[in-house]
């Protein structure tokens, strides 16, 4: 019983590491910004890490987020869809670097 629990915990610790799609740094989920797509096709910042569907992660750093948003091919691949619109909150970050 205990062994199973320890194994499950270990698995969880490894699973909580995510990769930034812009710079490929591996970090704990909470240190990254999760991007998700709404049913309407808007790419948004999933601040609570709980939206359904696929997610893409980027460092909580406007440089990484901008780099990722600029790479539409990578986004299309990550979310397996072509029709993505950058939502307002992300758009604000995107524009702040211009
Ligand atoms: Zn990054």
Strand order of the largest sheet: 5-3-4-6
Going by CATH, the architecture would be 2-Layer Sandwich
Radius of gyration: 15 Å
- Mean pLDDT comes to 88
CATH superfamily heading: YlxR-like
Bound molecules: zinc ion
Q: What fold name stands as the CATH topology? A: Hypothetical Cytosolic Protein, Chain: A
H and E string: HEEEEEHHEH
Low-confidence stretches: none
Tally the helices: 4
Strand tally, please? Answer: 6
Structural class: alpha+beta
Word description of this protein:
- There is one protein chain.
- The chain is α+β, with helices and mostly antiparallel strands.
- The protein has one domain (17-96): YlxR-like (Hypothetical Cytosolic Protein, Chain: A).
- It is 41% helix and 23% strand.
- It contains 4 helices and 6 strands, in the order αβββββααβα.
- It has a 4-stranded mixed sheet with strand order 5-3-4-6. Strands 1-2 form a two-stranded antiparallel ribbon.
- Strand 3 (32-37) and strand 4 form a beta hairpin.
- Helix 2 crosses helix 4 (88-96).
- The N and C termini lie far apart (55 Å).
- The relative contact order is 0.17.
């Amino acid at each position: 019983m205990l062994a199973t629990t320890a194994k499950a915990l270990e698995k969880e610790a490894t699973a909580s590491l995510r990769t930034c799609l812009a710079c490929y740094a591996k970090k704990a989920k909470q240190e990254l910004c999760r991007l998700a797509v709404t049913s309407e096709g808007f790419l948004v910042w999933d601040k609570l890490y709980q939206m359904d569907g696929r997610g893409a992660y980027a460092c909580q750093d406007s440089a990484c987020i901008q780099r990722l948003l600029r790479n539409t091919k990578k986004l299309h691949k990550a979310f397996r869809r072509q029709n993505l619109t950058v939502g307002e909150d992300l758009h604000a970050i995107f524009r702040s670097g211009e």
